[in-house]
Amino acid sequence: MGVVRSIEHVNTGDGDCPTVDVIIADCGEIPAGADDGISNFFKDGDIYPDWPADLSESPNELSWWMDAVDSIKAFGNEHNKKQDYKMALRKYRKALRYLDICWEKDGIDEEKSSSLRKTKSQIFTTHAACKLKLGDLKGALLDTDFAMREGDNNVKALFRQGQAHMALNDIDAAVESFKKAVQLEPNDAGIKKELAAARKKINDRRDQEKKQYRKMFQ
């Protein structure tokens, strides 16, 4: 069912045609009495179905759902560390689906609300980092926007935003993102290095423009 639901949520264009290829691989019949593969489909220890709707029982306790989000997010982080970015993205999207259910449960006080918003921001930030690694630059930018909707003081999101702008050759926007990040983390060497590289590109561009103008008036 997780595969079916994933296909249902693929973006479509004209004539309901999917905008990306949908490929089913390694399929077959499930023998009678065998595990149906809804839980731990990828054999990585993740015990939660890909989609909350496929749970045999849907707990009412907010704490259960928050624990599920943390667990799934941790699996995403593990795949990220292994540089399996596609699988990490699957886990992060799954964690967001479970996080959405949290808001439907009773018992959300100010502390839990703040924790959920922070977790959501972290997931979108690491989601953006994975997309950068896979070359989905516009997707990474969109993720950083989502991450900063919970507050524009997310240094990592600003850093990823700057990297995406740089890769898209929008150097001015990259400088702005890195400058905001440096203001929040003035001692971060990595951010300073990226900011210096972006500023150098702007200076190089200005020098090139000056040379072109000189040739025009000679």
Task: Considering the chains and any ligands shown, give keywords for the structure.
218 residues; mainly alpha; globular
Would you give an account of this structure?
This protein is mainly alpha-helical. The chain has a domain at 2-108. Helices cover 63% and strands 0% of the residues. The chain is built from 8 helices and no strands. It has helices spanning 2-8, 62-81, 85-102, 110-134, 137-148, 155-167, 171-184, 189-217. 28% of the residues are buried. The mean pLDDT is 90. TPR repeats lie at residues 155-188. This is peptidylprolyl isomerase.
Topology record:
Elements: H1 2-8, H2 62-81, H3 85-102, H4 110-134, H5 137-148, H6 155-167, H7 171-184, H8 189-217
Helix pairs in contact: 2-3, 2-4, 3-4, 4-5, 4-6, 5-6, 6-7, 7-8
Q: Structural class of the secondary structure composition?
A: mainly alpha
Count of separate DSSP helical elements:
8
Computed over alpha carbons, the radius of gyration is 22 Å
State the end-to-end distance. Answer: 70 Å
What's the helix-strand series? Answer: HHHHHHHH
- Percent helix among the residues? 55-70%
Number of beta strands: 0
What portion of residues belong to β-strands? Answer: under 5%
Main sheet: strands, sense, barrel: none
Ranges where pLDDT stays below 50 over 5 or more residues in a row are none
What is the residue-averaged pLDDT? 90
The 3D shape can be described as globular
TPR repeats: 155-188
Enzyme class: isomerase
GO molecular function: peptidyl-prolyl cis-trans isomerase activity
EC number: 5.2.1.8
